[in-house]
Amino acid sequence: MSRARVDHETAFLLHSYPWRETSLIVEMFSREHGRVPMVAKGARRPGSMLRGALMSFQPLEVTWSGKGEVKTLHSASWQGGQALLGGIGLLCGYYLNELMLRLLAREDPHPELFDAYAEALARLAGGGAHEPLLRSFELNLLREVGYAPTLDHDVESGEALREHAEYFFLTERGPVEADAKLGDLPLLPGRALLAMATGDFSSPETLSHAKGLMRRLIQYHLGGQALESRRILMELQAL
Amino acid sequence: MPLLDSLTEALRVLPGVGPKSAQRMAYHLLQRDREGAARLAGTLAAALAEVRHCARCNNFTEAEVCERCLSQQRDASQLCVVEMPSDLMVMESTLAYRGLYYVLMGKLSPLDGIGPRELKFDKLVERATDGMVQEVILATNFTNEGEATAHYLGEMLRARGLRVSRIARGVPVGGELEHTDLGTVAQAFVERRGW
């Protein structure tokens, strides 16, 4: 059960929506309480202490209370130590936020995912290659919410995947050895799936197969709904 | 639906107006200020019919091209891009800028589905590449959305051979470090410049 008041917890702002004349509804992702929606009263007033502090991609120290579904935010202060995101890093950050908004249930704590998110942001701010980072976060997220894909054995035969064999990935189940009668699913090399299983996205081959596969899995778990941030990232890259 | 209810419902399109306030407004207009109500109805209809976006700066205007864009007093080699008309008004009241403007009427907001198509980036590119503009000054807000907007506009305009600059950020004029928020001080430090 949720306690009435939570003091000084580390959290990230995932998204905010205007609410009434001067307030915001904020979706916070806190380390110990997971995704928590809150009302930030008066946060859109010119002199509000919350105004500058409620910024995405920056670790915040947050105090809130309330027993209902939507809590009341009392204070949020900037913790520091995280450089601002810029350029494509920002768009990747939005994508991570949208994934979490769509896939995380409210008030379900995921401290390990929280740490993985903080690290992903630090690496995005540091200008690290974003593709491996996105793939590894996507996989982490699916595992955390209980949708961990099977990546190490054939779900039909139960045998361990072989590096040099090729597999089809059945969206709802996992890899099966490639068979002509399964139609035109993309072929995935065993070594790429095995690398994904260990979180190793260093090879371009793994990365390119992982991209298609993760997109398919995420789309499936979102019930086919499109991700806005992904569409916009693609539109921006096409400019 | 009775007209009174339709009016209440219609007033709810205003930001921050819920069912209670809408009802109060409707009673007020019909009971206490019928003249004001007629003026409001007339002006609203006229504004809807007449006010449009300036073909050059995208700001609201009644003409095809607004007065500011037609002015001979302004420096046509500089184009300042802002998010909203209110930002333009702030820039104007500084008296620090004599160039022209482009108003985006928004900012990139990926989680709300606002992207380059919704903001009509192509209209800005067309404006900026008129042959007169030499420098584009990006004055979007220093929020994540404003920064993302500035980043992509910058890339797009630079690729078309334009000089692109971004307004500076840091400790406010007359500000003391002790009383400035930590995020601003940290960023001012990161973006320090040679002296």
TrEMBL record, chain A:
PANTHER family: DNA REPAIR PROTEIN RECO (PTHR33991:SF1). Coiled coil: none annotated. The keyword DNA repair applies. This is DNA repair protein RecO. Involved in DNA repair and RecF pathway recombination. Pfam families: RecO_C, RecO_N. Residues 8-78 form the DNA replication/recombination mediator RecO N-terminal domain. Keywords: DNA damage, DNA recombination, DNA repair. InterPro entries: ARFGAP/RecO (IPR037278), DNA_rep/recomb_RecO_N (IPR022572), NA-bd_OB-fold (IPR012340), RecO (IPR003717), RecO_C (IPR042242). NCBIfam families: reco. Belongs to the RecO family.
Automatic annotation (TrEMBL), chain B:
Pfam families: RecR_C, RecR_HhH, RecR_ZnF, Toprim_4. SUPFAM superfamilies: Recombination protein RecR. Keywords: DNA damage, DNA recombination, DNA repair, Metal-binding, Zinc, Zinc-finger. InterPro entries: DNA_Rcmb_RecR, Rcmb_RecR, Rcmb_RecR_Znf, TOPRIM_dom, TOPRIM_RecR. A zinc finger (C4-type) spans 54-69. Residues 77-172 form the Toprim domain. CDD domains: TOPRIM_recR (cd01025). May play a role in DNA repair. It seems to be involved in an RecBC-independent recombinational process of DNA repair. It may act with RecF and RecO. HAMAP family: RecR. PANTHER family: RECOMBINATION PROTEIN RECR. Belongs to the RecR family. This is Recombination protein RecR.
